[in-house]
Amino acid sequence: MPCRPLDLRKAARAVTDLLDALGVDRAAESLAETPARVARAYAELLTPEPFEATTFPNDEGYDELVVVRAIPFSSLCEHHLLPFAGVAHVGYLPGDRLLGLSKLARVVTHFSRRLQVQERLTTQVADWLVDTLHPKGVGVVLEAEHACMSLRGVRASGSVTLTSALAGLVRFDERTRAEFFSLVGCRP
Ligand code: ZN
Predict the structure, then answer these.
(1) How does residue 51 score in pLDDT terms, banded at 50, 70 and 90?
(2) Catalytic residue among 44, 64, 79, 134
(3) What is the helix (H) or strand (E) element at residue 172, kind and residue range?
(4) Catalytic residue among 33, 64, 78, 119
(5) What local confidence, expressed as pLDDT, does residue 80 receive?
(6) Please, what is the average pLDDT of the chain?
(7) Is 89 a catalytic site residue?
C-alpha cells in the first residue's frame, strides 16, 4: 500500500513535466489525456487489493505438497519503473492449517502491486505463507521477463529471470525439494 495518500492530479502534473523534460511534443490531441491515464495506470499498479487469508483446519491430515503452478503476475521494477511479468509457482507442505487455493494466487498479486525487485517479491510470498500457515515447508519460484532488460540496455528479449525461496522441508529435505521442483516443472 502506498505509504502516503495517492494524489492523482499531482501525479498527472509530474507525468506532464516528465514528457516535457524528455522533449516529447505534447501538442497532439491524442496526448491530451495521457498524463491522467499514466497517473491512473501507475496508481493501479502500486495499490494492492485487500484480501483475507481464509485458512481452515487440516482435519484429514493432508500431508502432501499443495502446489499451484503458473500463476500469472506482473509487477513494477523499482529501479526503472518498468514492468516485469511472468508466472509464479507456489507450494506448501501443510501443517495444521490449509489455505484456500485461490489465495495462493491472491498473495502473489498482493505483493506484486508495489515497487519491487523479483528477489524480494519471491521472499515476501514465501515469508507470508510461513507466517500465516506455519506449514511444514514452503516453495516459491518466479519466472519473469523484465522490460528493463528486454526493451533497453542489453535488449535481452525473451530472457527469463528465475528466483526461488524455499523454507522448512521444501528447503532441507532432499526428497520434498525434488518433488516440489518436479511439480513446478523446474530442475532443482
Ligand atoms: Zn529494472
Answers:
(1) confident
(2) 79
(3) helix 168-172
(4) 78
(5) 94
(6) 93
(7) no
Q: Which three cell numbers stand for residue 177?
A: 525439494
Q: How far is the CA of 117 from the centre of ligand 1 (A)?
A: 8
Q: How confident is the model at residue 169 (pLDDT cuts 50, 70, 90)?
A: very high
80 alpha carbon – ligand 1 mean position (Å): 5
Domains of the chain (ranges, CATH numbers): 8-45 (no CATH), 55-184 (3.30.1130.10)
DSSP conformation letters of 73-139: EEEEETTTS-EEEEEEEEEEE-SSEEE-HHHHHHHHHHHHSSEE-HHHHHHHHHHHHHHHH--SEEE
Q: What is the pTM of this model?
A: 0.91
Active site residue 118: yes
Q: Tens of pLDDT along 108-121?
A: 999 999 999 999 99
Query: Residue 92: is it exposed, middle or buried by C-beta count within 10 angstroms (0-12/13-18/19+)?
Result: buried
More confident residue, 76 or 158: 76
| Contact by Cβ (8 Å): 102, 52 | no
Ion ligand 1: residues, Cβ under 5 Å: 77, 79-80, 148
